[in-house]
Specification:
Number of strands of chain A: 22
Structural class of chain A: alpha/beta
Largest interface: A-B, 128 and 128 residues
CATH topology of the largest domain in chain A: nicotinate phosphoribosyltransferase
Shape of chain A: elongated
Strand order of the largest sheet of chain A: 15-14-1-5-3-21
Mean pLDDT of chain A: 92
Oligomer: homodimer
Radius of gyration of chain A: 28 Å
Distance between the termini of chain A: 72 Å
Strand content of chain A: 15-25%
Low-confidence stretches of chain A: 1-10, 166-173
CATH class of the largest domain in chain A: Alpha Beta
Number of helices of chain A: 19
């Protein structure tokens, strides 16, 4: 059923999905004969999102697909012409013939945990072409990485799956499912699809978005909304009073429900709501899950659910559970679980562990607060705060020139954090004796790489006093060539990448990933790169003259 | 050049761009024979975004296009089947044949200023079809209205165009241009396009997004980035030292620039930056605008710009200006203007009013703060905070059933603000003697509409004590039929709708629109609707029993 992202995206992800200034700059490069200069750009972030200390790298496959298919159509060229009417017409001839066959892209695997300053993409190739890729690559990496990180943080907040959670001793048994419900609050149609895809990558378990299910093969989930419940006002609206049992026989259902309702002393529950639950159970006897807060959760919704669930159980179908969509979710879930327990005892039915789904305006902080105060929720449906990344709605990834024709380039700034690390670099992840990553070490391409068991000086890129000797127990080169001008790397499936994110999360020390006061993970540079940066910095930065 | 939004969007905006629960609910409607019931849904918001007291209604044309083209393909049906394997196969036959020929949509004109509780869309038609539209309609209205409102608020913060600003006495002369730069921080490709389109609708003047320019005919703007400046390290990299004058002659340029640099006592300015500015001026002599903060704004960027600008002026081209992208924008813009003034006097050139563009992480609060402290910025480029709507990244629009088969439906809630206003309603905007809207009055369809010059009792929908007699000087029916099952209303062009938004903004009392402590605009109901709501409320809400 998975049709692949490419088909559906291609008519938007074109070279024109870009800022005008890329085309004006490249015209000026072309005009001054520099468009073929050998350039290196780094795409990187300056800080981790959400006040955290890690970022999930996502969007790579789409980025590589874009580069692979990079081509301006006649129609595109006509538009560029109309915007740059004074430009030399030979420029447009050049634009018409460019592609990415001389571009190389190096990157960590999609789903890798990454950190500020290290290149997420290293793009090498002719200046005029590498420059044109900027905006589109940022669009394709920034939001996917942001929402995948948001999803992973929420997954951490509710506990990892049992098979990977041992490492987090305190969280055992806390594993809950997370459903993405954000389509209606996303930035348009594709904003919704992008959110679904990368929330799943980051660790969510399913989406409500049908088109995301169809396009990417993500499991879809969903039952009913308030509208369904409120269409019914009385039992008289039910066209049928029976249900078909699992072995195909017709059996009386409505009067059974009413009997149980009486036994539950729930005669005051809302009759329209009861009718709605019956109709839904008749349609989906194998997956009966009721939204219980249309009128009054504990006085009407839950008793109505239980009456229908008991009749369904009697007819041979195990009911699934309820969904809460307003009110105090901790309190209501506990009270509901209590009613489930009572009914289990009273009627000797296995209702104690029926599913409780909750879904009202949940964010990462709510998940932590709920865990702290205790609750009985099994599944969280999260929309707005997941897809909008409300706590930080943009990842500030940037794309900066670091080398031209073999010479390092730097962007200085009044704001120190905006300074770039010049030159073509490799990144090694150094692993400690317990198997945990200790630091990401950047070195200049050509320098001797760090070796297992050998001490190496690692320095903070800007602060002289911060440095340490590190003897790694293992060393991993972070970047691989993902596009060599002809061929794209083979990408694992979305499902495999999601699994890789979970592995990444368990491979890091928990204190880097925790919600409150996480420990910063150190990104360092070699002695040689440190000296290189500071030499260039001294050369390029004008000395202030005060009078 | 405008290709129209439809072409580019259609492969995403399909009936599957929806939550699964719409399909499960509709199956249950279908199963209980209710899918043909006559239903009315209201799409409305519960509060205005950004702590303000108004909302710009946007997204209507796309919503109507979606309804017009509503159709499930064989492929879509196969996917729905795979997700609902136990459903009756006749359901899929029904799904295959549905369209919106029995749906009617009523709405205010796109660009209208709207308020909480009033329907933004009233959708009438068969329950099973009207229900299926929910998620997609919310996706198509929520974010567009949010970002258009954000854009309009930013436009208000910098002053309206001269022709409409008289009404805001204090803001005369403050009119500035706003450019949308958000593509790289949007939710994927279409998130970026949607942001560009509706920012323009809300009052922005141009976008950097080429595809938005091509698709929607929005003016595009852009010049150069830091990368361009930092590719150059010396004047030796310039392939040519000349420039072509407006009358087609070749004239020496670089040595002229160096002369002016000496006269400006700017011999210490960064040579690579100077080379970059020269190269850019050679490529775009008619539109020379330089990014001046790559090394040091006041010591290098501005003097380098001025040296090139003076030589360009001497060659017969008026320079355009500079862009600031970091640092204290108020201070730097004033200092830059001061340098412009000095040079104007020293060299007798008209440089005093050259353009100063600013673009570093600007939001609505920054715009107000800058206005307050004084600045010399002419144009603001805004990206992240505009497209992500960081101050409130989602508009909480909802889609609620208000009537079935002529009977009113209500959704009660533990949270009062989540209660809906039942029944099919009309909305009249009542205008006071000065021409300003006073209140939006909702009445039941069939009630006598309010009349000019006649006193009518307007009540708060929920609070008994809040009521007033209003004698309107004018009365405007807010909703029109936008889709009647066969034909869509004619939509004005994007440009016309943008103009309509500006008109709307000037037609309201300024105190409703202001940034600090805006006055809430009153939304009221007729006496008859008030009684109707409270009667239903009493009937449906279970009375608590305490023990």
């Amino acid at each position: 059923m998975c049709l692949g992202g490419k088909t559906i995206m291609n008519n938007l992800v074109t070279p024109l999905l870009s800022d005008l200034y890329e085309f004006t700059m490249v015209y000026a490069y072309w005009k001054s004969g520099r468009h073929e200069d050998a350039s290196v750009f780094d795409l990187f972030i300056r800080e981790n999102p959400f006040g955290g200390e890690f970022t999930i790298f996502a969007g790579l496959e789409e980025a590589v697909n874009y580069v692979k298919n990079f081509h301006l159509t006649e129609d595109d060229i006509d538009y560029v012409k109309s915007v740059l009417p004074t430009a030399d017409t030979k420029y447009f001839t050049w634009l018409k013939h460019i592609d990415c066959s001389h571009i190389k892209i190096y990157a960590p695997k999609e789903g890798t945990i990454v950190f500020p300053m290290i290149p997420l993409l290293r793009v090498e190739g002719p200046l005029g072409i590498a420059q044109l890729l900027e905006t589109t690559l940022l669009n394709l990496i920034n939001y996917p990485s942001l929402v995948a990180t948001n999803a992973a943080r929420m997954k951490l907040a509710v506990g990892l799956p049992a098979e990977v959670q041992n490492i987090f001793g305190t969280q055992a048994g806390k594993n809950k499912d997370l459903l993405e419900f954000g389509l209606r609050r996303a930035q348009g149609p594709n904003g919704g699809l992008t959110a679904s895809r990368y929330s799943y990558l980051g660790g969510f378990d399913a989406t409500s978005n049908m088109l995301a299910g169809k396009t990417y093969g993500i499991p879809v989930k969903g039952t009913l909304a308030h509208a369904f419940v409120s269409t019914f006002s009385s039992l008289k609206e039910l066209p049928s009073s029976v249900i078909i049992t699992p072995d195909g026989k017709q059996t009386e259902f409505v009067s059974n429900v009413l009997d149980f309702r009486k036994k539950l002393s729930a005669g005051n529950s809302h009759e329209g709501e009861l009718a709605a639950f019956i109709a839904y159970a008749q349609a989906f006897p194998k997956s009966f899950l009721a939204l219980v807060d249309t009128y009054d959760t504990l006085k009407s919704g839950v008793p109505n659910f239980l009456a229908v669930a008991l009749a369904l159980h009697a007819a041979g179908y195990p009911p699934v559970g309820i969904r809460l969509d307003s009110g105090d979710l901790a309190y209501l879930s506990k009270q509901t679980r209590e009613q489930f327990r009572k009914v289990s005892n009273q009627f000797r039915v296995p209702f104690e562990n029926l599913s409780i789904v909750a879904s009202n305006n949940i964010n990462e902080a709510t998940l932590h607060a709920l865990t702290q105060q205790g609750h009985e929720i099994d599944v969280f449906g999260i929309g707005t705060h997941l897809v909008t990344c409300e706590a930080q709605p943009a990842l500030g990834g940037v794309y900066k020139l670091v080398e031209v024709n073999g010479a390092p380039r730097i962007k200085l700034s009044q704001e120190k954090a905006k300074t770039t690390i010049p030159g073509k670099k490799e990144v090694y992840r150094l692993i400690d004796q317990h198997g945990f990553p200790m630091t990401d070490l950047m070195i200049r391409v050509g320098e001797a790489p760090p070796k297992v068991g050998e001490k190496i000086l690692c320095r903070h890129p800007f602060e002289e006093a911060k440095r340490a000797y590190i003897k790694p127990s293992d060393v991993k080169l972070l970047h691989q060539c993902m596009w060599d001008g002809k061929r794209a790397a083979e990408f694992p499936t979305l499902e495999q990448r999601r699994q890789f994110v979970l592995e990444q999360i368990t491979s890091f020390r928990q204190d880097h990933l925790r919600y409150l006061n996480p420990t910063p993970y150190k990104v360092s540079v070699s002695e040689s790169l440190y000296n290189f940066i500071h030499e260039i910095w001294r050369r390029e930065m004008p000395v202030a003259e005060l009078e």
